[in-house]
Amino acid sequence: MIDHPTRDAGFGVYLHWPFCLAKCPYCDFNSHVRAKPVDEARFVAAFRREIAASAALTPGRTVTSIFLGGGTPSLMQPQTVAALIDAVAAAWPVAPDAEVTLEANPTSVEAERFRGYRAAGVNRVSLGVQALNDADLRRLGRLHTAQEALAAVAVAAAHFERTSFDLIYARPGQTSAAWAAELREAIAHAAEHLSLYQLTIEPDTWFERLYKAGKLVLPTPEEARALYDVTQEICEAAGLPAYEISNHARPGAESRHNLLYWRYGEYVGLGPGAHGRIVTAQGRIATATEKHPETWLELVERNGHGVVTQEVLTAEEEGDEFLLMGLRLREGVDPRRYEALAGRPLDERRIADLLGEGLITRRIGARLAVTPVGFPVLDAVVADLAA
Ligand SMILES: C[S@@+](CC[C@H](N)C(=O)[O-])C[C@H]1O[C@@H](n2cnc3c(N)ncnc32)[C@H](O)[C@@H]1O
Ligand code: SF4
């Protein structure tokens, strides 16, 4: 087994399902709408080949988590999900307690498939609820009502031992009081995990066009900060502290797959537009597959995989990625691991400055972590430390 400072965090398998029923106006994920039904059997055959090709590059690993993300994986038939999970289990040993997450949209049609997903081996579901008021759901382009979403949350809780749901806040016109009430309602329905994302205007989205035309007014930085503070306060009090800048969990209920990314572990990315980080004899390799679903399909059918980028990361790049991911976590990063990856220690003067400004703190074991004051300016803190 190849020794590398990132080999201790587990081994994850990410599978991307790139289709949605409609494109949400804020979303820049690799998601596509198709007028005709998707040929799921053809995609399964391609996934099987790409899984086998990637297993050949990663011998000796034991899978600790599988994540079916999208797009909208809950549009897949349960037998498709079963075939994908079985293909992973045929390619690598899977730990008995492996976390197997599926992202789902909370419509009633999709909730009807939950029993089948459970039988297929899914043990955790993450639902995109996004808002708990219908006017905002419509503005976000969602195809479900708040009531339908909460019903899907309840169905999920009945079928899966672990569930989570996502909300988007800092929406146009949203006041702190309105968000606080909505978040309290969400927490009353939440089990062990919540992802709370501030609305971001992503390039080449419909929201970006509206924003540039002055038709979408976002909270000011001060208002966004107040919304962030309210979020932390309410979640802390409810026993769901942030373990990552946007992710809250009861202690022990964190998403193990996402922790693998943030702890800079090893994972393969399969399916259209998926990213992986694998450790080979050449070093840590960044992989990316073809984004366009049907082009990916043709590539895999021709070559056995859809990988279009495969780059050995330099020590500098590894160090930067490690900081970028790890400083999102409340637990922070171990500077010795940075040194092992980057080939040089962090700059003590910069650390001292950031400590002095109260943006970072030293935790047990000399770990460096961003403080609640630092999180709203995380990008600047990372850039400063990485320089
Ligand atoms: C790629 S989506 C997949 C989940 C599923 N398709 C859904 O929409 O429910 C993952 C999550 O990213 C978040 N997200 C996507 N675009 C965002 C944006 N522009 N700003 C904030 N959050 C966003 C949403 O909360 C969404 O649930
Ligand atoms: S937010 Fe989810 S449902 Fe909407 S376009 Fe993005 S991936 Fe698809």
What is shown here, in short?
It contains 15 helices and 14 strands. The chain has helices at residues 40-57, 78-91, 108-111, 114-120, 134-139, 146-159, 176-189, 206-212, 221-237, 256-262, 293-303, 315-326, 335-342, 348-356, 378-386, and strands spanning 11-17, 63-70, 94-104, 124-130, 162-169, 193-198, 242-244, 247-249, 266-270, 275-280, 283-289, 307-312, 360-362, 368-370.
CATH superfamily of the largest domain: Aldolase class I
The Cα radius of gyration reads: 21 Å
Distance between the termini: 32 Å
Ligand kinds? S-adenosylmethionine, iron/sulfur cluster
Roughly what fraction of the amino acids lie in strands? 15-25%
Counting DSSP E segments of at least 2 residues, the number of strands comes to 14
Q: What spatial form do the alpha-carbon principal axes imply?
A: globular
- As residue ranges, the low-confidence spans are none
The largest beta-sheet arranges its strands as 7-8-6-5-4-3-2-1-9
CATH fold name of the largest domain, please? TIM Barrel
Average pLDDT: 95
The oligomeric status of these chains comes to: single chain
Helix count, DSSP H or I runs of 4 or more residues: 15
Q: Profile the largest sheet.
A: 9 strands, mixed
Share of helical residues = 40-55%
Structural class: alpha/beta
The CATH class of the largest domain turns out to be Alpha Beta
* Count of domain modules: 2
Topology as a string of helices (H) and strands (E): EHEHEHHEHHEHEHHEEHEEEHEHHHEEH
